[in-house]
Design a protein that fits this description.
Keywords: Membrane, Transmembrane, Transmembrane helix. This protein is α+β, with helices and mostly antiparallel strands. The chain has helices at 2-6, 10-15, 40-43, 92-107, 119-129, 140-150, 156-179, and strands at residues 31-36, 48-53, 59-64, 67-70, 80-83, 152-153. Helix 4 packs across helix 5 (119-129) and helix 5 packs across helix 6.
């Protein structure tokens, strides 16, 4: 009964099982993950650090000059994730892993630049290599716009960790402006 309601095909589930997310171990198969960057995210909660995960859930992120981290994000555990569909990568799961691996190897030869060759660029390169969604036009701006629209927080605490510093700064600024006498 439930299989027909949710249109689950048992044959496709056996041939292409989709690994589940394991929040306790930070395993996010086929996901783009995001975490706040202290100070920068406090000033603008949409700015953060991004990584992309292998089919096994292992996170790869361009963490600094000539360094792609594996399973240890530069600014802490992921607070948001955007689950993508591996069937939209050329050659499916194998194409996904190949794109992430090749993009990561390429970025091990890149100098990190906060404004134009950064973690977002690394994720975009991986998506372009796997031709995700039949596209090779992924870029850091597109990802920066799409991540807040499609991502989910890993927990309520993750949402608080992302937004509370910004809210406190804003409230502090407003109080300061209100309390300072006008000349």
């Amino acid at each position: 009964m439930l299989r027909s309601v949710f249109n689950i095909n048992s044959t496709s589930m056996k041939t292409n099982p989709r690994p589940s997310i394991d929040f306790s171990r930070d395993r996010f198969p086929f996901c783009i993950v995001w975490t706040p960057i202290p100070c920068l995210t406090w000033l603008c909660p949409l700015i953060g650090h991004m990584g992309i995960c292998m089919s096994s859930g292992v996170i790869r992120d361009f963490a600094g000059p000539y360094f792609v981290s594996e399973d240890h994000m530069a600014f802490g555990r992921p607070t948001k994730y955007w689950m993508l569909d591996p069937s939209k990568a050329r050659d499916g799961v194998q194409g996904w892993d190949r794109g992430v691996t090749e993009g990561s190897e390429e970025y091990r030869g890149h100098m990190h630049n906060l404004f134009c060759d950064n973690c977002h660029s690394h994720v975009a390169r991986c998506l372009n290599l796997m031709q995700y969604g039949s596209s090779t036009r992924w870029n850091m701006v597109k990802l920066a716009v799409m991540m807040p629209l499609h991502a989910k927080y890993v927990s309520t605490w993750a949402l608080i960790r992302t937004w509370l510093p910004s809210i406190l700064l804003l409230v502090g600024l407003l109080l300061l402006l209100w309390l300072v006498p006008k000349a």
